[in-house]
Design brief:
It is a single chain. Helix 3 packs across helix 4 (about 75-80). The chain is elongated. The chain has helices at about 1-30, 35-45, 50-70, 75-80, 90-105, 110-115, 120-130, 135-175. About 85% of the residues lie in helices and about 0% in strands. By secondary structure, the chain is mainly α.
Length: about 180
Amino acid sequence: MLALGDFIGDYGLACVAVLAVSGIAIYRLWTKPLYGERLDRWLLNSKFTFGLIAKAQTARYLRTIGTLARSGVPLPDATHVALGMLHNRALAQAGHAVSTGLRQGGSFSGLLHRAQLFPPAAVQLARVGEETGRMEALLVEAADTLDRETQGTLDRMLAVLVPSITIAMGALVAALIA
C-alpha cells in the first residue's frame, strides 16, 4: 500500500494525463465512420455485451415498424422511419439495407435474416407474421419478447454483480487489515 501511495504521489498526474489522452483518442476513433462501425459491430457480436445492444435496439426498431404499420404506413416507409431507432451504426446500416430491399420487393424477414445482425427471434417472428398476414402484431410481439429477454439478462447480471462486489470489498478490507 505504501508503494502504491508513493507511485501515485510520484506519477499520479502522468497517469491521469495518459488516461485522458487515451480516452480522447478512443473517442476520436469511435467518431470516425470506419472505426466506429467496426467498434459497433464488435459490440454487437461481443460476448461481453451478452447481446443486450442488439436485442434492445432491435426491440425499438421492430416496435416502431409495427406501430407505424398498424397506423397504415406502408412497410418500406415504416422501416425507413424506424432507422432513427438504431443508434448502433452496424445495425443502422443493416436497417438501411432492409429498407432499400423492401423498396425493391424483398421479403422483410429474408432481409432481416440476410443482415445477420438481428436476433433470430425477431427474424422468426417476422417470418411468421409474413406467412400469417399478422405482421404488425407479431412485430410488436417480437419487440415485447426482446424487451423481456433484455430485462431478464440485466436482472441476472445484477444478481451476480451485487455478491461479487461484496466479496471484492471484503477481500480489499481483509487485505488492508492484513
